[in-house]
TrEMBL record:
Keywords: Membrane, Transmembrane, Transmembrane helix. The keyword Membrane applies. It comes from the Bacteria. The chain crosses the membrane at residues 31-53, 65-86, 98-118, 125-141. One of its GO terms (cellular component) is plasma membrane. This is DMT family transporter.
């Protein structure tokens, strides 16, 4: 079930990127499309938070969060904005293939070094072969 949910999440990312990049084209402003997407995300996430959260963090839990973890939204806004800007120029297939490759390379490095407090999973030959195959696939997909 988790695998299906992960595949569905990936499909939703491609769908929203394509839809919102077209919104940016029609509005002639990819940043406006980014703001619209995040405003609606705040609304939907806020309603879900209020509806489904039974236990809220206390103030000491909030203060214990490392400062840099509060800046994920800046990274999200930058990444999403770049998607909406680049898709009309590159096409959704090319953009998603490059983005996925970037995600996988960073994921392997983050796992190997245990960045962001993630469990450490060593880089091995199989992972290097898999990444190489992804990069080869990227080249073939974008010919």
């Amino acid at each position: 079930m988790l695998l299906l949910m992960a595949l569905f999440a990936g499909a939703l990312i491609t769908l929203q990127a394509g839809i919102n990049s077209q919104l940016g084209v029609l509005l002639k402003n990819s940043l406006m499309a980014t703001v619209v997407a995040f405003a609606l995300s705040i609304l939907v996430s806020g309603l879900a938070l209020i509806s489904f959260t039974s236990q809220w963090p206390n103030w000491s839990d909030v203060r214990a969060v490392p400062w840099y973890l509060w800046f994920g939204g800046v990274i999200s806004a930058t990444g999403v904005g770049l998607f909406y800007f680049l898709i009309p120029k590159m096409g959704v297939g090319a953009m998603m293939s490059y983005a996925l490759t970037g995600q996988l390379v960073l994921a392997v490095l983050a796992s190997h070094f245990g960045w962001f407090g993630l469990p450490q999973v060593s880089l091995n030959q199989a992972k290097l072969i898999g990444l190489s195959a992804m990069i080869a696939g990227l080249v073939l997909l974008n010919r």
